[in-house]
Amino acid sequence: MKYFADCHFHVMTMKEPNFAAFLTSFNSDLKESVTGNLTKNYIITPESILKNQFMSTIQNTLTAFSRPIGDTFLMMEADLAGQYLKNAKTNDAPLLPFYHEGKFHYRSEEYEKLIMCPLLMDFSQTESQIKSIYYQFQSEDKITPYIEDTIEGMRYYYEHSPYHLFEFYPLVGINPPAHDFEFLKHLLSTYVNVSHTFHQSQTILDKPFYGIKIYPPLGMNPWPSDREEMKKVRYLYEFCQMYRIPIITHCDDQGFRGVPVKEAWEFTSPSSWRTVLENYPSLILDFAHVGKQYSQNIEKAFSAVQYRLKKMPTSDWFYMIMDLINDFDNVYT
């Protein structure tokens, strides 16, 4: 059987993100926050403006957020099967659905199954983040309900899909600063599968997660100075290195944040991972988004033009990742 893999996508509802924390992160460095999220290559792209697609994209995203996770999985499959082609408002819609005649078609290849790896994000807040707002509340575990909703969503898809195209191998999100050491151990031992084998088709194992999703902008320093925080990340890295569990870390300068933008960029930078890899050289680490940096300061703007003319990446983070790939055997992007 021939498989196609989607190794990076997110499915969530309005319950999972912590919008209050995201807005709080704008309190400082507002200029960098706004200019970054509105940079012409990120949310408001020239193409979306010319084709009047920006609001449509936002509406579609919010529609997906408003549905249970299982419904979203079914919606994704139905979209691939062409159910929504009649609603397309652009001329770049495919002539045929990606899924037809019982197979997924992509770039002249045919696939019987799609390996789907939804990446969960741990939006649990730290105590210090909670203290920065007026309506303070007890720290809430956001990841466990998200895990259970995702498991239920996969089960719902398997029970109701007309095509059974997807096979799920999700990665669980972990934000160590938001939890104590025992919770971290519990999360890994309860949900992470270390078998490295395919599950039977359309089934969910007792431990259904096959990797770890790290999202530094939510407040995780990959190599913290605090002793208790260091204990937690060391346990995480030791567990992942011992069982060869892959870690995918967010690595562009946009997206959700739980800390001020400059701190988020410091944690997200590939340079923050070098010490980790020096201590855990066999760790399997994947940098998502190829280190794309959308926010460019004036000093870098002119050099960026030269890079574009040479069709080379303009991001410093990209070249940091390349150095790590050269230096360590299990680093990817």
Low-confidence stretches: none
Largest sheet: 5 strands, parallel
* Lateral strand order in the biggest sheet: 7-8-9-10-11
Q: Cα distance, first to last residue?
A: 26 Å
Percent of residues in helices:
25-40%
Order of helices and strands: EHHHHHEEEEHHEEHEHEHHEHHE
3D architecture notes:
The chain has 333 residues and is α/β, with parallel strands linked by helices. The protein is 39% helix and 11% strand. It has 13 helices and eleven strands. Helix 9 links the parallel strand 8 and strand 9. Helix 8 packs parallel to helix 9.
Task: Name the descriptors.
333 residues; three-stranded parallel beta sheet; 13 helices; 11 strands; 39% helix; globular
In short:
The protein is α/β, with parallel strands linked by helices. It has helices at residues 19-24, 30-37, 46-50, 54-65, 69-80, 127-130, 143-160, 181-191, 227-243, 261-268, 274-279, 298-309, 316-327, and strands at 3-9, 99-100, 103-106, 109-111, 113-118, 166-168, 172-173, 212-214, 247-249, 285-287, 331-332.
